[in-house]
Amino acid sequence: MSNRLAALGLISVSLFLTACASIMHGTTQDVGISSTPTAARVLVNGQDMGTTPVIADLKRKNQHFVRIEMDGYQTYETTLTKKVSGWVWGNIVFGGLIGLAVDAITGGLYNLTPEQIRAELTRGGAEAVSLDPNHLYIFVTLTPRPEWQKAGEGLQQE
Description:
Strand order of the largest sheet: 3-2-5-6-7
Radius of gyration: 26 Å
Shape: elongated
Structural class: alpha+beta
Number of helices: 3
Helix content: 25-40%
Low-confidence stretches: 14-18
Distance between the termini: 110 Å
Order of helices and strands: HHEEEEEEHEEEE
Largest sheet: 5 strands, antiparallel
């Protein structure tokens, strides 16, 4: 009887430890998103997350497409990718293949990178506006940068 209890206890402990990464850091990750200027709209995978600065709680098992936009500024876009976490070694030591499988399925095996996004929004850009179905108007605003050097000037007629 005591051998069965010991075996049952060992199985319970091994099942508890099988998903080491999921237990240690969870299946979601907080990603800080900020911008200059602040109060820019943040969309993650097309879902509105609020305005900057914001902390998005995202599933570790998926890649995420981040879009930061503000009227009058060029849109900032980036992708959060998943990388294998260091907790995979805990699975190899304690959980074996079952732990690796559980963490891979739940996403606990991964970390999202980058862990924080800092977007520098720049003014200008181009905007397309359709005022009626037969015409498309494109507006372009070019803003010179201080680091640009003047190469020449247009010809003047006398």
